[in-house]
Design goal:
The chain is α+β, with helices and mostly antiparallel strands. It is built from 4 helices and 7 strands; from the N terminus they run H-E-E-E-E-H-E-H-H-E-E.
């Protein structure tokens, strides 16, 4: 993966307000970037690269499912090249929320883990 080609032509897809952090999602041709600002360092942050085909795979596999966690997605994935860890799955779910294809289920606010409803 070439960072220069990854950053070319990015457009803002949306943001996700999770439990402790807000994530900003940018869309490229074949990838999404999930970015967050560091809470400890004002001028620093993190980013994760998410493949667009991984987002499509999870959207199709979990279409109209409720109470979905990143662990559920990672365990159910039959394509480890697309979803290999719970962190991969969580970033994919964040992309789905930012693009309006999923939402964070507010009924489980007090739970430690985030629960999602995938709509499409």
């Amino acid at each position: 993966m070439n960072l220069r080609s990854l950053a070319t032509g990015l457009s803002y897809a949306g943001e996700v307000a999770a439990k402790r952090q807000t994530y900003h999602v940018f869309e490229g041709r074949r990838y999404f970037l999930v970015m967050s600002q560091s809470r400890a360092k004002r001028n620093a942050g993190n980013f994760n690269v998410v493949r667009a085909d991984a987002v499509e795979y999870v959207a199709a596999r979990f279409h109209r499912k409720r109470k979905v966690t990143s662990t559920d997605v990672a365990k159910a994935s039959r394509k480890p090249r697309l979803v290999s860890t719970s962190l991969d799955a969580l970033n994919i779910l964040y992309v789905l929320v930012a693009t309006g294809r999923a939402e964070i289920d507010k009924k489980f606010k007090k739970e430690r883990q985030l629960y999602f409803t995938v709509t499409g």
